[in-house]
Amino acid sequence: MRIPRKTELIRLQALYKTDARIAEALGGIPEYLVTYWRRKKKIPRHTSTKFTQQQIQELWERFGDDFRAGRELNISKAAFYTWRRKYGLVEKPSELRLEQLQLRLGVPPPPRDQSEIGPHAQTASAKIMRRSLDNRPDGSPAFDWIVRKRGDSDDAPVAVCPGPRFRWPSTEPTAADGDLAAAAHGEPLWCLPHAGAIDWQLVESRLVYPGQLVRGPQTLLSGLGGVGLLTIGEEQNGFPKHTIKIELTRRISGSVDVEDLFLTMLSHRWHEDWPGTIIEFWGGPIERLSLDRKVKLCHLTVRAGAAAAMCPFDDVIRRHYGRLLQGRFPQSHPDRAAVYDGEHFLEGRHVESSLGVLHEETRWAVARSAEESGEPGGVLIGPGALPYEIERAAELVDGRRIQPDQAGCLLVCPATPRVYQGAFRRGWAQKIIAAGGSVLDVALSRRLGVDDLLQLAATGTSSRRVYISSIPQTTTRSVGQLILCSVRTALRAGLGIG
Length: 498
Known about the structure:
Helix 5 crosses helix 6. The chain has 20 helices and 16 strands. The chain is an alpha/beta fold.
């Protein structure tokens, strides 16, 4: 490990301000090493103020709101309030106070059409769509990435092509980066479906960025909204016209997961208004979700009929990209006064462990409590299990043993080879195998297909029920009943574990 010189540390401190961000810029080294080097070289903790009075005052006079001004600096509402109190900015700007005192008689109500939303009250998706139309004389949208499937078969390769609006966020990659350098020069990348979920491949490789606009088949890109970008299905003509906000308040219990949150929304029948609509998630509990959980939530929402789903850009997404986001890239945050075509509010304490029955006709049934189902069955974690699902399964089955004569099998199908390798590296796969489960290779699970995986999971159980944590693209008639639920609920109801 190379120890940076004092001049280099001072330069990095002027750019990134904190030891944690300097550690990310140096390649993800531990923060305490940067602190140790700084003290040994007698460099003070702060060489300059992180935000000047001019910056804080300019944003305060422009917005007059701690939340919106803090978003511009990528800090929280409380942090911006602390900074303006430090500089003595305690009163609301006079111009904004006069504007709020005006009666505005005869002014029509705010427009509901997404394309008519004004510049001072935009949703996150409206900002991304409006940016794609800027400086386009022909009026056609400019996409950052265009994804096309080369063929009709499930194993057909997928071309990920840089669009006319594509710009590399920071320094251009070198030839040593291989495909990334090709993408920077406008050449397409190739993703293979047998290598796993396409959306998680793009998130893992850090090719797509928050605020970008991507066009492609939604069956492949349904989870990309979890990193704060907008995906438009190739079958859609133009942009969706309606946007719905779903805000989650209060902290979610540790015994529930995003699948339970999704099923709770289904139980309220909110999904009936989702077709052709963009769903934007709000709230502190959403921002506290891990990155893979955000991707899973957007994936389930799009599979339920929504045209697209987005999570807000936050610290979790920023940490995933690290120093790649130090360059310029379009951050799109929804405005507090943004006008939505529908709004739903859900308290975290009302989200409970639940399950949903998938019918062959409608594919959906109203979610119900997990305690109502006492029938055992096979468990299929996936298809396309993300890291949090494998980790949760390993925690629950650690030190236990699955009895094959009492229930079905436990199958785990990782989303990508990198997730598969990470499961063994972290010891999750060993715990699952020791308990009597199976962790399938990605290429093998893709070759078997959903039907064969469901048949394997149902082996040994007379109820012919299979508990799954993801929605398959096609249902099957060979299994009696498919139950969608979280990993904890699946292991408790299906195998009596948890």
